[in-house]
TrEMBL record:
Ribonucleases P/MRP subunit Pop8-like domain boundaries: 47-120
Name assigned to this protein: Ribonucleases P/MRP subunit Pop8-like domain-containing protein
Annotated Gene Ontology cellular component terms: nucleolar ribonuclease P complex; ribonuclease MRP complex
Positions of the UniProt region annotated as Disordered: 12-31
Polar residues compositional bias, start-end: 13-25
Organism superkingdom: Eukaryota
A Gene Ontology BP annotation from the UniProt entry: intronic box C/D snoRNA processing
Molecular function in Gene Ontology: ribonuclease MRP activity; ribonuclease P activity
Length: 156
C-alpha cells in the first residue's frame, strides 16, 4: 500500500528535479584570465667569470699599472703556475684603474686563474717584488661591482 505522505514526497521530488533542469545554470568564471601569459625563464650559467685584482708591491715606489703591464704579469703568473696550458687561457682586460684591474676569463678557468695570480710573485729584488691580490671574483659582474662599491662607501 502506498501512503499519502509518500505520494506527496514523490511529487515534490519530481517537481524539484524538473525545476532544477529548467533553471539556467550560472556561467562559471574561469580560474585564470585569458590575458595573462605565464612565462618562466631559467638563468643559465654564464660563459664568463670576472675577477678584480689589485697589484701589491713591497717597494715604496708606486708602479704605473697599464694594460700592457697587466697582460705581462697575468701571462707570467699563468705560465709559471700552469705552463703552456696556462698561457693559452683567454684573459680579457676590462678596466685598469690605479692599482686595481678587472679581467674576464672563461667560467671553467676561474679557479686555475685565481690560484695562479694569487700565488704569483714577480719582479726582482732591486726593483721590488710584486704580486696580485684577488679582491673579488664571480660569475656576475654587476654583483661584484656593487659589492666593491659598498666596501668603499664607508671609507673616509
Amino acid at each position: 500500500m502506498v501512503d499519502a505522505g509518500d505520494d506527496i514526497a514523490m511529487q515534490d521530488a519530481h517537481n524539484s528535479a524538473g525545476e532544477q533542469s529548467q533553471q539556467p545554470v550560472p556561467e562559471q568564471k574561469p580560474k585564470y584570465r585569458d590575458n595573462y601569459v605565464i612565462n618562466s625563464k631559467t638563468i643559465t650559467t654564464p660563459p664568463f667569470s670576472f675577477i678584480c685584482l689589485e697589484l701589491v708591491s713591497d717597494s715604496a715606489a708606486t708602479t704605473k699599472l697599464d694594460e700592457l703591464t697587466v697582460r705581462t704579469y697575468i701571462t707570467s703568473a699563468l705560465t709559471q703556475f700552469l705552463g703552456l696550458t696556462g698561457s693559452s687561457i683567454s684573459v680579457d682586460i676590462l678596466k685598469v684603474q690605479g692599482k686595481a684591474c678587472w679581467i674576464r676569463v672563461p667560467r671553467e678557468d676561474l679557479s686555475p686563474v685565481v690560484a695562479a695570480v694569487g700565488g704569483w710573485v714577480g719582479g726582482n729584488e732591486t726593483e721590488g717584488r710584486v704580486g696580485w691580490k684577488v679582491k673579488a671574483k664571480g660569475n656576475w659582474l654587476s654583483v661584484l661591482v656593487a659589492d666593491r662599491e659598498a666596501e668603499s662607501l664607508w671609507d673616509i
